[in-house]
Structure formats: C-alpha cells, structure tokens
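Model: You mentioned two targets. I'll fold them one after the other.
Researcher: Yes, keep them separate.
Model: Target one:
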Amino acid sequence: MKLFDYIFRGAIDRRISAFQSDLTEKYVVEVENIYRQMRGWRHDYHNHIQIMKAYRSLDENDKIDAYLDSLETDLTSVDTLIKSGNVMIDAILNSKLSLAKNRNISINAKAVVPKNITIQEIDLCVIIGNLLDNAIEACLRIEDETKRFIRVYMDLKRDNLYLSITNSAFGKIQKQDGRYMSAKGENHGFGLIRVDRIVAKYSGYIKRRNEEDAFTSEVMLPL
C-alpha cells in the first residue's frame, strides 16, 4: 500500500510539475510580447520627437499642433484592446487578446465589469486566462489564418456576471467522462478542472458547446 501511495504521489507531482512548466512558458511568451510592444513604442516615440523638432526648426507650429492631435487620436485607438471598467480584468484580457492578435487571430471583444465585485478577481483571472489560453491554442491549430477568430463577451445579466468565449476550432473535440479534453494532452486538463472548480465554488454555471468549426464556453457567476 505504501509503495502504491508513493508511486501515485510521484505521478501527481510529475503532472503538477508539467502543468506549472506549461504556465511558466505562457507567462514568458506574454512578457516577451509586451516587451516587443514596448520596444516598438520606444522606436516610434523617438521618431515622433524628431519630426516635431523638424517642424519647430522650421517654425511650423501649426503642423506641430496637427501632429500632436493625430498622436492623441492614435494613442486613444491603440491604448488597449478592451476597457471593461475593472483594472484586474482589463489586465488579463488585454494580455491574452494582445498575444492572440499578434498571432494573426481576429479579435472581437466587449466587456463591461463593475469596478468592485463580490467575486474574487484572482478567481476571475484564472477562469478568463485558462479559457483564452485554450481558445488561442485551438486557433493556432488552424493553418488558414483567415479562419482564426476569438469572440469575447462579458457583461452583467440581472444579478450574474456572464462570460462567453467563442473560438474557431478544427475537427471534433473529444470528451472523456462527459468532459471536453484538451488536444494538448492530460497535463493541460488541470486548467479546465480549475475553471470548473471555481465556477462550482460560487454556485455558478458553465456550459461548453462544440459546434461546426467553433467552440464556445459560457460561464455564469452569481454576484
């Protein structure tokens, strides 16, 4: 019996280690993505300064004003992909969606979340993060980039917080014991289990639908 317990604990430890390694790789990719964006902004910032210096040397103040107005408009449009009203939710949504966009995945997202909610923000981040990770991975398995898409909708429905994430999918997603399985293998299943447990923690509701060329996850959490 002790030998069985030892082997069982060892197997669990290896699966958890693999899962943590998978998470670490995701964080590294996301940080690298943000770093590339920052380098791009730095390069653009330098160019903007040079252009305005040139206008000033020519005493063309009206062109400086027009250039500043265009910069303000541009910054407003690229500030973030989405602003829900909740800082923590915005952080996780924009991190994941920015990564998806850089991988040539079409994004359509809308989110309205109160600044203060009864649901722990870390729990929401786990749900959103895992569902979007799955959505991105499903899209990347589609060779035709024009068919890659992710749609995110998040809003209040009566006294509930509603979240829907739909992504393009290729082929039939398999089930085991009534649960959709990740195409990446058993270690990735920990993320899906965590989502289900958090939803149950709040006596919420989760539904997954595998339709033709699309997969949808819907979550309803009582406030």
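Model: Target two:
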Amino acid sequence: MLVGSRKDLLRTTDGVTVLTTVYTDAGPGSADSAAWSIRFDPSDDDHVYVIFGRGCCPLLESRDRGLTWSETGIDATEVAIDSRGNAYAASSVRILRRVAGRAEWVDITGSLPVTRSR
C-alpha cells in the first residue's frame, strides 16, 4: 500500500504496522495545498504512477511496487491507466498516451473529439 502524507510518499507491505518513506517531494510546492494522486496499473502489480501537487507537477513512475521512483519526463495534472496498461496523462494544455511496454509518450490531444459551444 502507498500513502501520501504531506510531502512524503510512504509504503507498507504489512498492513500499516511499518511505514517506510520511499519518496519525498523536494519541490517548492506547499504540503498544505497539494495532494497525492496514486494510480496502480491493473495489468501489472509492480507498476505505479504518482503525482504530488495541484495543477502541475512531475509524473513519477515505479516499476518495483513503489520501492524506487523515477520521473517520466512530463508534467501532469492527472493520470489514468486502462485495463491493458496504457497510461493517459493530462496537463492544462494536452493529453498524452503511453502504450504499455513502450517508453515514449504521444500527444493525442488533436485526435480527441471536439465539442463546440455556440
């Protein structure tokens, strides 16, 4: 289990008897106004994405059940993972997709249907 607490991301494997800090956000964001978004890959128990912040922030990824973390190279406001392991990251201006098993993120903003209001 992963739990965000202030600027720390904590991990437990024993039902919360022992919590270990696995990541600490060092950025300028306030721990009082930000939140953790944690998304588990339904197709791969080892794969997790997290975002710490609100309205911006590096998208982090773990491939070892949250033991270690790396930046994906993109900033996101939200992330979602479908049942096949494809990831979707949204920012204030674009939506990116990463196909499971691939390293690159592809901008799919232009391929989304547009609803125009009058």
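Researcher: Noted. Anything on target two?
Model: The chain has one domain: 2-111.
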